[in-house]
Amino acid sequence: xxxxxxxxxxxxxxxxxxxxxxxxxxxxxxxxxxxxxxxxxxxxxxxxxxxxxxxxxxxxxxxxxxxxxxxxxxxxxxxxxxxxxxxxxxxxxxxxxxxxxxxxxxxxxxxxxxxxxxxxxxxx
Length: 124
Description:
Elements: E1 2-9, E2 18-23, H1 28-32, H2 34-40, H3 44-60, H4 63-91, E3 95-102, H5 105-115, H6 117-120
Antiparallel strand pairs: 1-2, 1-3
C-alpha cells in the first residue's frame, strides 16, 4: 500500500477550491533527472535552484569531487522530492488535509471520496 497526502487549496476570487494527492516515498524521476521532475510538478523555483546548485558545484569543485557530490545531492532529492513538493504547496496556500492509503492513486482517491466527499469533488 502506498501513502498519499491530501492537500487542499481554499477557494479564492480567481480560482475555485482544489484538492491534490501527493504520493509519499522515493521519487525515481527526481533521482535521475531532478530539474525535469521539478518542472513537471510545477516547482519552477526549485528547478532553478537545483540547476544553479549543480552549475555552481561543477564550476567550483574539481571533477573527481564534483561527481560524487552531485550524485549525493540527487540521491537526497530522490528521497525528499515529495516532501519538497508538499512544502512548496504549503507555501502557496495549500493546506494538508490528511493522509490516505491505496495501492495506486485511484484507490487512494476512492478512500478519500469515502472519508471526505467534500474534498473528492474538487480533486484534480
